[in-house]
Amino acid sequence: MTDFFTIQPGETAAPVPSGPVLCIGTAAMRRIHRVFLWAYSEAPGLVRSAGPGDTARAAYVGEVLGNFDKLLHIHHEGEDELMYPQAGRTGTRMCVAR
Fold first, then answer.
1. 29, 85, 92, 96: which has the highest count of C-beta atoms within 10 A?
2. What is the DSSP-derived secondary structure letter of residue 8?
3. Is 6 domain-assigned?
4. DSSP letter string over 42-80?
5. In a domain, 11, yes or no
């Protein structure tokens, strides 16, 4: 597994794989949803990367995953406060599309 929190030589950002389109909004909105899907799909391998007794790595992994959880929570709060009320007023359809 590639540690997606360490930028390798020549990389400028973590890779974002193709995947389901979680909204019909802007490209930026689709991108952030794909990043979350990707990050959480990588999480089990990241957890396994902390070997037995490697408490420093385990603490780092826990902090990183905790930060993703916080970011996801903040992202959803933003959707709840800014996007969904507007979509309700305009009748915009939102769905998961594959």
1. 29
2. P
3. no
4. HHHHHHHTS-TT-HHHHHHHHHHHHHHHHHHHHHHHHII
5. no
pTM of the model: 0.59
CA distance 2 to 46: 9
Domain assignment of residue 10, yes or no:
no
**What is the residue range of 48's domain?**
27-90
Secondary structure (3-state) at 21: strand
Q: Is 95 left (phi over 0), alpha (psi -120 to 50) or beta?
A: beta
- Contact predicate 47/61, CB 8 Å: yes
Residue 15 lies in a domain: no
| Count of the separate structural domains present in the chain | 1
pLDDT digit string (tens) for 34-93?
788 888 888 999 999 999 999 999 999 999 999 999 999 998 888 788 777 766 666 655
